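I am writing to request your help with a piece of structural work I have in hand. A protein sequence and the structure tokens that stand for its backbone fold form the material at issue. Please examine both parts with care and let me know of anything in them that strikes you as inconsistent. The record follows directly beneath this note.
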Amino acid sequence: MAIGSKDLDAGSLRKKTDAELVEELGKAKETLFNLRFQAATGQLESHGRLKAVRRDIARIYTIMRERELGITPVVEPASDDAAKEDAA
């Protein structure tokens, strides 16, 4: 069983655009900060969540690096014009 968030598995992250990955990374870093703060003040209930969020961040960085190196294709954002052309 993989450790991490259910919605941030590698398959779903690869379907996201670069901008969406950056947004997810920001959210994950903010969550990690809040969890660390809770741990420092003794309010954290689930220490396993820290590990899961750290792995989510690593997974996002890995996919971004794969795209940078050309290992996996970059997902292009779907524009309205392209969607109209495909429908025609």
In short: The helical segments are 10-14, 18-40, 48-69, 80-87.
